[in-house]
């Protein structure tokens, strides 16, 4: 018998499922599997439909939240997937600008692997430049997500190259990675926005800290350095104790709390309602939500019970009402 807590066993198992390409391919190929899991996914996916998604973002803004958006998908290995994702971002920017209900531009985010980085650096740069140029025309901020540690060098290389031309660009950094304290030095020199996360991927002990007090302290130390640089920044976390610590200190001043749509909405609502810290709900939309669903459950393994109940009951998601 293992002495590992059952919650950690569940987390590691879900992350292994998310990291196995064969299961992702099975999800994409099997409509019945998608139909089966969809009720659980809709707790976290703001919509599978673009028009409905824009209406829901407008509703969140009316409630006082800033909004962020990502077209769900990552680790695209074919030109067809990459082209589809890139074109969707271009259409999305145009659709947001013409939607009468959005009070301010929604921040866009994406994984570089979704726009070509796994195929070539040149392809990713080309597609990013297309997206960023269109976004600049509409005053839309763009933030690059961080992915598995084996791609960190590539992601930072592409970000630093893009940052020379695009001041509305930002980058996500993972506190769990041991290298982030060193990476931060070059990132801060760009003056671009930084979004700090703990990190969702299962990483070797040699390169990353596990969840716990040591990671929380590292997160706070990195956030202090970011705030001191005088740049735009977001502390992105769903951890209630960490949110409380940051909001009770000066670390929140000038920054914003960013939380994923559908994950502990009451927590971000309580911060927003206090009126001292800006809040951003970061949503994802689209149909390729397999990895996103597993990552959300893995963060809080007790959510697997909610997922089972969602699948069994097939009732309509009430997530929006919690905001």
Automatic annotation (TrEMBL):
**Signal sequence, renumbered to the chain:** none
Residue ranges constituting the Proline dehydrogenase domain according to the UniProt record = 55-287
* Keyword Protein transport in record: no
- The reply to whether Oxidoreductase figures as a keyword in the UniProt entry is yes
Q: Which domain of life is it from?
A: Bacteria
Which Pfam families does this chain map to?
A: Pro_dh
What are the record keywords, sorted? Oxidoreductase
Q: Which InterPro entries match?
A: FAD-linked_oxidoreductase-like, Proline_DH_dom
Q: What is this protein called?
A: Proline dehydrogenase family protein
